[in-house]
């Protein structure tokens, strides 16, 4: 926390101004943060705030969900991010909020994922949130990430995941290829090696294109989300596609822009195998 606060002061970091659609562009070009909760993050907070639970959030970005969860009384919340500037913003917002004066519930963790999972012990978290982050992983990284989520979850603990589907305005040029891959029964039909290639020029300005990363990306749908979670040994309780929580001429398409899932670690170890991407 101290290092994050020091960075915020040294670099005079502030929460960015929201974009026209209300989202907040991340510092590292890995999408944007949304302040408004969706159906899965709402369930995450309800579950995580009931009883004494230890909670982990991957890629917390500017802490919108983190701070809302902490306001519900969670006493052991670990927020991670690959960009130290994001953690600095979270630390600053937490430190400046009178509601959290003297509160020691928040721990910040800086490191790359999925590699940094090794720093967390087996069976150590009651809930894990991956909000709009798993789609930045390759198939192999996705398999490894979910294997590690399974490992660090306590028996009976739950993971909450949200990802982007192909059904978004900005990348609708990818939909025909995606549907073709579905017909061919490709294992990861939504995986692309360069996201920029499929950006819709009608709704993407040169500035937005420059802010977009040119690395691999994997669009999910409910079927793929259910499958990868099941293959990791988790029991899927919900996998559903749903609309954005905000209106956007850039992203909104047909009400299936996001997919979310909730899955539980069995109370007893089951026999399963991990599939490599």
Descriptive account of the structure:
The protein has one domain: Rossmann fold. It has eight helices and eleven strands. It has helices at 2-10, 39-48, 64-71, 84-96, 139-152, 175-183, 206-211, 222-231; strands at residues 24-25, 32-33, 54-58, 76-81, 106-110, 125-131, 153-164, 191-192, 217-218, 235-242, 258-264. The strands form three sheets. The protein has a seven-stranded mixed beta sheet, sandwiched between helices. Strands 1-2 form a two-stranded antiparallel ribbon. The chain has a two-stranded antiparallel ribbon with strand order 8-9. Strand 6 (125-131), helix 5 (139-152) and strand 7 form a beta-alpha-beta unit. The longest helix is centred in the middle third of the chain and has 14 residues, at 139-152. The two termini are 36 Å apart. The model has no long low-confidence stretch (mean pLDDT 93).
The number of domains: 1
Spatial separation of the terminal alpha carbons? 36 Å
CATH superfamily: Vaccinia Virus protein VP39
CATH topology: the name is: Rossmann fold
Beta-strand share of residues? 15-25%
Mean pLDDT comes to 93
Which structural class do you get from the secondary structure elements? alpha/beta
Shape: globular
| Total of helices | 8
**Main beta sheet strand tally, sense and closure:** 7 strands, mixed
Unreliable stretches: none
Helicity range: 25-40%
- Briefly, what CATH class? Alpha Beta
- Helix-strand string: HEEHEHEHEEHEHEHEHEE
Strand order of the largest sheet: 5-4-3-6-7-11-10
Q: What is the alpha-carbon Rg in Å? A: 18 Å
User: Based on DSSP secondary structure assignment, what is the total number of beta strands?
Assistant: 11
Q: Architecture in CATH?
A: 3-Layer(aba) Sandwich
